[in-house]
Amino acid sequence: MPDRLSELFAKAGSSVQIVLLGDGTDAEQTVRSAVQTGASMVVAAGGDGTVRSVAAGLIGSHTPLGVLPLGTLNHFAKDVGIPLELEQAVAAIVAGRQRSVDVGAVNDRIFVNNSSIGIYPDIVAAREDLRRQGHRKWAAFALATARILRQYRGVRVRLEAGALAGTAVTPFLFVGNNEYQVEGIRLGSRRKLDAGRLYAYLAPRLRGADLPRLLALALAGRAMETRVLESFATRDLEVETPAMRAVRVALDGEVTFMSVPLRYRILPRALNVIAPAS
């Protein structure tokens, strides 16, 4: 793949220095070093987790981010409008059109798409256990999902966002960098990445086993109408999990442990991204 990328950039009239981010590589520090030595642009070639790590190293600089969508889902690339075909993505990067987008942060860890606690991080942890036992990625994910859905009762959260405060037991708390489409055929996408708001989503009336029903309602465009799914917009959000001093937190699909409280905030237009003109 490195040779292929070098060839595509050369064909487009640009040269690149390729750095492989292997296990144990501090991607954020690698990016900061590139910025300090005068890189005119830093390109993340990978999925959403790679994009998140590279973007984190660019916050606070004027150096733009280019994205080559080489992951499985490529949510950020799709929402920004970056072509999923590799040669077209390279052409967009070389064209160099910039736009500024928001990023989210939780306890000063950056995310470009979303962060969540509850059932999804637990499914990811169970999936990784199954992969270490020899299961393939998607088989492990399906098996982990089935197991966790059957037994998951929810996480108790206390939320504070400005004048809003409350406690709930929910299968998940999902915090998006800007508003997500939660119903219909555009489910899981965002129309804007620069509106300057976090959007929090939770389902306090459901247990884990009820989540397939929530998905069906969302696809039918009825999740909000039936009040099965609740949401609100905010710039800042503090999350407590009573009786738990640390929780698993998903950041753009990757999971880590964090101490509570979790302090979420939006960083308006903090990231410059190379993207085709809309």
What report would you give on this structure?
With 278 residues, the protein is an alpha+beta fold. The chain folds into two domains: 2-96, Rossmann fold; 111-265, Tumour Suppressor Smad4. It is built from eight helices and 14 strands. The chain has helices spanning 2-11, 27-36, 48-58, 75-80, 86-95, 119-132, 137-151, 211-219, and strands at residues 42-46, 65-69, 98-106, 109-111, 114-118, 155-161, 164-170, 172-177, 198-202, 230-234, 236-240, 246-251, 254-259, 262-274. The strands form three sheets. It has a six-stranded antiparallel sheet with strand order 4-3-14-11-6-7. A six-stranded antiparallel sheet has the order 10-9-8-5-12-13, with helices on one face. The chain is globular. The model has no long low-confidence stretch (mean pLDDT 93).
